[in-house]
Amino acid sequence: MFTAVKDAMSSKAAQSFVNARFERYGKVLELKIDSKRKTVAVVCLLHGEPEPITLSVGKYIIEEVGGKKYIWAA
Questions:
Q1: What is the predicted pLDDT for the residue at 35?
Q2: Out of 3, 4, 39, 42, which residue is the most buried by the measure of CB atoms under 10 Å away?
Q3: What are phi and psi of 38, to 5 degrees?
Q4: Residue 51: C-alpha distances to residues 20, 25, 33 (Å)
Q5: pTM of structure
Q6: What is the pLDDT of residues 7-19, one digit of tens each?
Q7: Sequence-ordered list of residues with C-beta below 8 angstroms from that of 20, at least 6 positions apart, any chain
Q8: How far apart are CA 57 and CA 70, in angstroms?
Q9: CA 56 to chain centre
Q10: Taking the mean position of all CA atoms in its chain, how far away is CA 24?
C-alpha cells in the first residue's frame, strides 16, 4: 500500500519536472513509475502529432555519481 502511494506521488512530481523541460517538444500526459518492478511508462503528445505516443522503460536503475543521482534504462 505504501509503495503504491509513494509511486503515485513520485509519478506526479516526475511528470511536472519532465513537462517543465519538455514543453518545447510537447506535453507529458501521463507518467507512471512502478518502483517495485523498476519500470516507467510515459504518454506524450508531441507538437504537430495527432495522437499521443507511449514510451515504456522495462527496467531502470538509479546510480549515484559524484554526489548526484541519475536514472538509467537498464
A1: 93
A2: 42
A3: 60, 45
A4: 21, 14, 22
A5: 0.82
A6: 999 999 999 999 9
A7: none
A8: 15
A9: 9
A10: 17
Helix (H) or strand (E) holding 7: helix 2-22
Strand, coil or helix: 52: coil
Question: Are the C-beta atoms of 26 and 52 separated by less than 8 Å?
Answer: no
Q: In a 3-state reduction of DSSP, which class is residue 2?
A: helix
Helix or strand or coil: residue 59?
Answer: coil
Residue whose grid cell is 518545447: 24
Summarize pLDDT for 57-68 with one digit per residue, the tens: 999 999 999 999
The amino acid occupying position 5 is V
| Among candidate residues 65, 71, 64, 68, the one with its CA nearest the CA of residue 18 | 71
Going by their DSSP bridges, the two strands 53-57 and 26-34 should be labelled as unpaired
